[in-house]
Design goal:
single chain, alpha/beta, Immunoglobulin-like, four-stranded mixed β-sheet, 1 helix, binds copper (II) ion
Length: 115
């Protein structure tokens, strides 16, 4: 009986902890492809950590978000993860900085940080 009570208690405790933990990080999946990011615009909350999971579905691309000093290379079919905490509100442009073809110069997106 005691074991059963402990098991039920554990399940309840996990159920309570899990949603809170999920709110502490904003996970956003971004796909890169010639010559755009999908989605092109993401909205995140100021002061809450953001994890970007970046993946290219065709060739090598870059991801440069200078306002937050973030820059990485995105490899095809490999997940690249970046975590940062936006410390101010606004609209911040990210762009491909790895030449990927004729549309490369137009390959960009926006992170909107809200209160
Ligand atoms: Cu490019």
């Amino acid at each position: 009986m005691a074991r059963f009570v402990i098991a039920v208690f554990t399940v309840l405790a996990l159920a309570v902890v899990h949603p809170a933990a999920a709110e502490q990080t904003q996970v956003v999946h971004i796909k890169a492809h010639m010559f755009a990011y999908s989605p092109e615009e993401i909205v995140v909350k100021k002061g809450v950590p953001v994890t970007l999971e970046l993946m290219s579905i065709d060739r090598v691309h870059g991801f440069n978000l200078p306002d937050f000093h973030i820059r990485t290379t995105i490899q095809p079919w490999e997940s690249t993860t970046i975590t940062f905490t936006p410390d101010r509100v606004g609209r911040f442009t990210f762009a491909c900085d790895h030449f990927c073809g004729d549309g490369h110069d137009d390959m960009s997106g926006v992170i909107v940080v809200v209160e």
